[in-house]
Amino acid sequence: MSEHIVPVKTYVAVWITLMIFTGLTTGVAYIDLKEWNTVVALLIAVIKMSLVVLFFMHIKYASGLTRVLIIGGFFWLGIMLTFTLADELSRHWEINPAAWGPGIIFLHLPHLLNFLPLL
Amino acid sequence: MSEAATHEANPTGLAHQFEDIEQQREASSLGMWAFLVTEIMFFGGLFASYTIYRALHYSAFEWGSRNILEVKWGATNTAILICSSLTMAMAIRSAQVGKKKATTIIYLLVTMLFGAAFLFIKLYFEWRQDWIDGFVPGLHWVFTSAHPSTVEPGVQMFMCFYFFMTGLHALHMVVGLGLLTVLVIMAARGRFTSQYWAPLEISGLYWHFVDIVWIFLFPLLYLIGGRYH
Amino acid sequence: MSTVTAELHESPAEPRTHYLNASYGIRSWLLTTDHKRIGLLYLATITFMFLIGAIAAALMRLQLIEPQGALVQPETYNKFFSIHGIVMVFFFLVPSIPATLGNFLIPLMIGARDVAFPKLNLMSWYLFITGCCCMLYAIMAGGVDTGWTFYVPYSSAYSHQHVIAAALGIFIAGFSSILTGLNFIVTIHKMRAPGMTWFRLPLFIWSMYATSVIFILGTPVIAITLLLLGLERLLHVGIFDPRIGGDPLLFQHLFWFYSHPAVYIMILPGMGVISELIPAFSRKRIFGYTFVAFSSLAIAIISFVVWGHHMFVTGQSVYAGLIFSVLSFLVAIPSAIKVFNWTATLYRGSISYEAPMLYALGFIGLFTMGGLTGLFLASLAVDVHVNGTYFVVAHFHYIMVGGAVMAFLGGIHFWWPKITGRLYPDLWARFAAFTIFIGFNLTFFPQFVLGYLGMPRRYAVYPAEFQFYNVMSSAGASILGVGYVIPLVYLIWSLRYGPPAGPNPWGAKGLEWEKAPSPPPTHNFEEIPIVTQEAYDYAGTSGVAHV
Lengths: 119, 229, 547
Description:
Chain B has helices spanning 3-9, 21-56, 58-68, 71-96, 101-133, 152-188, 198-222; strands at residues 135-136, 140-141. Chain B is mainly alpha-helical. In chain B, helix 4 packs antiparallel against helix 7, helix 5 (101-133) packs antiparallel against helix 6 (152-188) and helix 6 (152-188) runs antiparallel to helix 7. Chain B starts with a helix and ends in a 7-residue tail after the last helix. The longest helix of chain C has 37 residues, at 74-110. Chains in contact: A-B, A-C, B-C. The B-C interface holds B 3, 15-19, 23, 26-28, 30-31, 34-35, 37-39, 41-46, 48-49, 52-53, 56-57, 60, 137-139, 153-154, 156-157, 160, 164 and C 33, 112-118, 120, 178, 181-183, 185-186, 189-191, 216-221, 223-225, 227-228, 231, 234-239, 244-247, 250, 254, 257, 523, 528.
């Protein structure tokens, strides 16, 4: 499976990139990007995680099964977040029975997007 | 023949239920990944709760992050963990390519050193200071009305999550240090060869995972505070 | 005298070494890494826990014979139903089929010598009994009165009972589930015999795989939830306390994120057992193998997106309620596919009514009733009427007792000859199956009526108008109790006096029947079998030859 032996050069390159991104994310926190600060910080975190997973944890060279497993793990985390937030963020919506119909779910989808910057 | 006897008699480390060493390594690696998936969900419950309370107490979380946590320690610790991940990866590699066992041991010890440094910074410069300042919810909380009272419950919630998340992470670090100790002993006994390094690999996966948790904790706890204010 | 009897039962050939007589003594059991012995250790443990849960249930039914309560104060009654729920869910149903039959059968069915991590397997059992001990401590020290759901603020602020000990027990037992699930997933992926492709696997393996997926994805969430609960209870930091900015509903979200899929942890293995029993006693290949296999996975996945239907009336938003209601209806589809395929397998099969088959047929009927009443509860509007009533109690007992326990007993009866190498008295077994079926329906059907009439659950007293149905239910419970004791007696009897079973008393298909003697040797197979056939290849075989 992970017979592949990663060259030292790759490891060091990944390490340098990770250090640069750590500096970058710290620096960006001091710049006012309005609601985008969190987005940028999380984006950098995701990039750093991907580097660790792909190279240090050898997923770049691993079988499809292991990849499915990891993607599955994050997908389930997504399920938990999405559905819990679906309740928490919509709990104070006004109930207006006159507006109810089959399309109500689609009607309210844009409302959820309003909360994105909050996260 | 008992299983223990089989195990001792077999210097390659192949257990009786497997056909060959390749099958055994694949199984142990897959097992570790499955365990890490449970860890994702374990920390995931916390991250989900954090997200919800962050949405509910937006400004209080920012206030807490900005005024209580210090970015320099968070950033230092992030760097330390990234370095430890590199040395961990190098330790595995040195066994894979069949370097002398001393090389593997040195890489492992350096990894442990980084891990210990992380815990020291966490414990001494951060948690100890929080205790002195009275920022430990439930145990030593002396947050006074010097701050806008409207944010207080939210700040306590933020510190709750701060301690619970970093505490759980630190606990994982301690477990990781225990694993590394075992690895050092195994390496010293010459158990690892270029054929047999599965224990190194799966412990490495665990170590990198703990690193990844911190990679997310750092921005979520330290960097959200609107530092530009 | 007894030695003579024992000799009579030995096969004429020289005594064979198998996993039961390979070594003796308590140490050889407590330190075993043999998946078959670990399965039996689990069987003994969960039978003990079942007895405790059953005693609590019996006391509840006694109390409810009279409207004003025949037995105890309401506070004590609260402890009865809490102990019953916690013990039955976390310490009996969740580990029931996976940890006993799953442990015993998975390596045998896929043609492996053991599970992938035998020592980890033993460790799971030790974790499990540690969890059991915490729970027993909580019971003996005075009990718990929060209900099995541990809802805040009952469990965080108002209960003065042993919530922490009980939660710790569940937390530790949860790690046992995680390690078992992990072990099974790796075993099924990496340890299959040559030729054992995914679509030649017995359906029991597919269902165990789906169950294991839920184990490793769901259980960690209940672990972290209980940690948060413990923190809140010990330090009062306000994580679930609205006065300090917390949200009690968050606890329910996290709790049900595990505990709804946990329902499928209980029923999926049962479905797997039934998928083995129906073809074996109909002498037919299962109808729609791939549909049954994939419906297990579909159930495992959908089970994670329906948890909000437990929260329709607890303050969840209407928007979330709508989504969860729709998704809850979806989960009925894969379940219905299974029921359809089982009945289609029966069609024109040469059916024989051995005891395991009686349980299987009982399962199909009772599970269908339980499942369909679940759709009532998934409808937002109807749920407002019946939520928190005996309708809910009846519904989930049809799934958990009528479904999971029936399948568990059916599986135990089916594989008992393989596990012990002995046959049990078939007449008694059929009698017990009928007794359980009748007792069960008499206990729980009246509860549907009670619930629909509006009797709330979890009360020690009730208006006199409900007494008729309650007495009926209690009478049924006593029949059900007798029904459970009968198998316990004759199965233990058969250990010593049962006639030898032979490798394949049912003439069933599968590696465990065709390639391994009963009981199997410690390493299962003389040599690893090479699989060339699909599962359930019953074409050309006729009715059960023996018994």
